[in-house]
Amino acid sequence: MGRHSEYIGIVVIWEFRLDELVLPGFGDLPRRLSPAGAGRTLRFATLGGADVARIMGSLHACKVHRDRLRFTANPRQASRASLNSAAMSESCGRYDVIVIGGGHAGSEAAAAAARLGARTLLLTHKRATIGEMSCNPSIGGLGKGHLVREIDALDGVMARAADLAGIQFRILNRSKGPAVRGPRAQADRKLYRAAMQRLLAETPGLEIREGAAEDLLIEEGRVAGVVLADGRVLSSARVILTTGTFLRGLIHIGDEKIAAGRAGEAPAEGLAQTLARLGFRLGRLKTGTPPRLDGRTIDWKGLSLQPGDEPPPPFSFMTARIENPQLPCHITETTPKTHRLIRDNLSRSPLYRGDIVGVGPRYCP
Asked: Which residues, in sequence order, are bridge partners of residue 15?
């Protein structure tokens, strides 16, 4: 081992405030620390590799910025100088991958990066809205159902979440050949959100943090991290943008225009400006949100019943059977009165008026 055999452990030097003294999962560790000087310094003396890993994880959980940490090897002989470990100091507090956005794409990207062993952070405005089905509360369909099952074959999470939240499952185009059939699930939005959040919380190596990404940290022409709206800087070797409808988002409701990522949530304006400054060409995609109907106002007796398949066909290859109670769908039709109402108000539609120029997916997800 040469020179390093003269060293017996690692010393972590951490400048801290008194209210940061408690480290989760360490129990008696504060009694092993020796405060030194103003501002106080913690010295974790003569630690093995397991202790070092615990310290790094614990300090990370306390959101201690890596610039406040220094790692040194403790010498066997008091007369020898400590050996600074620049590599460890650099790695603490640094992520391998930061994923911005907690929608469908962000959830899959974060889970995939963590499965590959990367130290991953999922950065989202609100932890409570991870897995939110803002638009269409269904998964799959023609073409899209194939994609969900391909994601599942790669150990993704969407299919498993759909199976945990689905309240009706059908194979579309069953009367046609296998190539054009498509699995589809109608999902309970609350169940899907809860299932996705649980699956991500159970993913080793994945941290979830609330925050608004305002800028990208660029060093020598490469991305090096994310700058948050509150000024914090998160270092990372890779940054994945899955901003969905939030990047310079704009909501149209009749004649009204609202800058928003979705109803009640602010758009990502700063990040859009960063991408433009870096030379990316920005465009717009469009999506439409179906209306939410109050079931208490619907005359169900006048609608055609459409039951799901029995037994319900799961999306995931790892789901043995669907446990949720299943519900039928109901089919209705427009009427001449509906058509007249639409024609009389086409001039108020932002799509027909020319306010919306972007193209978008047929449905989502």
From this structure: 41
pLDDT at 17 over 80: no
Question: Rounded to whole angstroms, how far apart are CA atoms 163 and 324?
Answer: 9
Which residue from 13, 10, 14, 6 is spatially nearest to 73, judged by alpha carbons? 10
Residue/partner pairs of 299-306 with CB below 8 Å, 24 or more apart: 300/330, 302/332, 303/330, 303/331, 303/332, 304/330, 304/331, 304/332, 305/329, 305/330, 305/331, 306/330, 306/331
Q: Name the token pair of 178.
A: 């296998």
> Is the CB of residue 184 less than 8 Å from the CB of residue 170?
yes
Any residues with CB less than 8 A from the CB of 167 and at least 6 apart, and which?
A: 186, 187, 188, 191, 324, 325, 326, 327
Q: What tokens does 165 get? A: 């939240």
- Please give the order of strands across the beta sheet that includes 213-219: 206-210, 120-124, 94-100, 233-241, 222-228, 213-219
Continuous segment of H or E residues that includes residue 213: strand 213-219
Q: What's the farthest any 2 CA atoms get from each other in the chain?
A: 94
- pLDDT tens profile 228-264: 988 888 899 899 999 888 888 888 888 888 988 888 8
CA pair distance 59, 44, nearest whole angstrom = 12
Taking residues 210-233, what's their average pLDDT? Answer: 89
Q: Which residue has the tokens 């979705």?
A: 262
CA 346 – CA 359 distance, rounded (Å): 19
